[in-house]
Every structure is written in structure tokens, then in C-alpha cells.
Amino acid sequence: MDAEPAPEADSAPGLDPSIAAPPQSSTSDPTPPSNPSPTPGPRARALQTVYSSALNHTLTTLSYPNFAACFPTAARYVPKALAALHLQTVGKLEAFAQKEFDAILAERDVISSLNALDGVLASARAARAEAGDAAAPPQPTHMLAPEQIAAAQLKPYLVAHRGKLNAAIQNVGAANERLAEEVRGQRREIEELLRGVEAVVRDLESAGREVGGIDLRKEGVDVEADLKGLG
Question: How many Å apart are CA 104 and CA 100, to the nearest integer?
Fold first, then answer.
């Protein structure tokens, strides 16, 4: 009975298939070099220090005892391999977190912005020193008296209402001036009427004196008789 032929091996024993074939050369153009990152200033270095401290503190909590508690069987039978896996995991987490942080810094141009802020603050300090105000910094808000804080809070409100009150006072003053002018005009009219009445009274008095010797009753009777005769 013939023996069945053994299947041909795909690759040589002990050879990793991932490295069996030589890497293919890339035909694409090389990536142009990126602009060099700016040198971190005081605030950028402080930000990097704070992030590094926070990352180290976080990775410290991932200690080997905590890591081994998640894999009790491996910790009992292959502790060295588990310890190596723990170191590898911590190293990869640290590298990944740092890489992401650096990518965010580069994408948002954080270092340049913080350096610009350092420059602005340095210029402000220099200008204040030249003006002679370096020895007398402004008093912090929390150290001001309650009256000063209340006045500062109420000042915009009071200024706005003062403007409204001034406008209302001007409007009322203009209305009062118009009313006063009307009153003065009416007073002049009354005075003119009084002068006219006085003139009429004087005329009546003069006419009364002229007809003082005439019997008005008799004259009236005669006039009435004449009118009847005409009728």
C-alpha cells in the first residue's frame, strides 16, 4: 500500500513568514521635512513638566502587583514573562500618551502661542518698569474695601441712569420753559385787555359827564313819540 505524499511546507521551519519576503521599495516621493518645532519657553516647559508628572503618576498606579492581580494564573506559573509583559505594556502606554501629547502640541501650535504669551508679558513688565509703576502693583480685587467693590459694580448702572435722568430733566426743563412762555403771553394779553377796559371806562365816564345835564328819560319819550308818528 503506497504511502500518501506529505504536504509541501509553505515556508522553511523556524522562519517567520512576516520576514520571509524582502520589503518592497516605495516608489512614492519622500515626505518633505517638517518645520522644526520652536524652542519651548518658560510656560511651555512648565506645561510639559506638569503633563510628564501627571503621566508618571498615572503609570505608577499601574504597578506590577496590580497588573499581576488581573492575571493570577500567569503570575503563579510564568512570573518572569508576566513581569516583562508589564514593563512592555507600561512602556507602550507611556510612549503612546507622549506621542499623542506631542501631536496635539504641534497641531494646535501650543508652544508658539505660549512663547508669544511670554513675550507679551515680558514687554508689559518692561513697559511698567519704565513707567515707574513696578514698585506699586495694582491692589488685588479681594483686598479692596466692600464700599469700593460696590461702587465699582454700581458705577456702570448709575452712569447709565444718570444719563437718562439728565435727558429727562432737560425735557422737563424745555417743557417748563414753553409753559412759562405761554403764561407770559397770556399775561400780556390780560394786560392789554385791562388797558382796553380802562380806556372804555374812561370814555364812558367822559360821555357821562357830557350828558350829565340832559334828561335822558324825556329824550327817550320824545324819540319814542317820533318813531310812532313815523309809523
Answer: 6
Q: Using the structure block, give the residue that is written with the C-alpha cell 516605495.
A: 26
Are 83 and 65 in contact by the 8 Å Cβ rule? The answer is no
Q: Is the pLDDT of residue 221 over 90?
A: no
Would you state the cell numbers that stand for residue 46, as one nine-digit string? 512648565
Name the burial class of residue 135, with classes exposed (0-12), middle (13-18) and buried (19+) by CB atoms within 10 angstroms of its CB.
exposed
Classified as helix, coil or strand, 163 is helix
N-term to C-term CA, the chain = 182
- CA–CA distance, 170 with 164 (Å, rounded to integer): 10
Q: Convert the pLDDT of each residue in 57-116 to its tens digit.
A: 999 988 999 999 999 999 899 999 999 999 999 999 999 999 999 999 999 999 999 999
* Residue-level pLDDT at 184: 92
Per-residue pLDDT band at 28 (split at 50, 70, 90): very low
Contact by Cβ (8 Å): 30, 106 = no
Cβ atoms of 48 and 40 within 8 Å: the answer is yes
Amino acid at site 197 = V
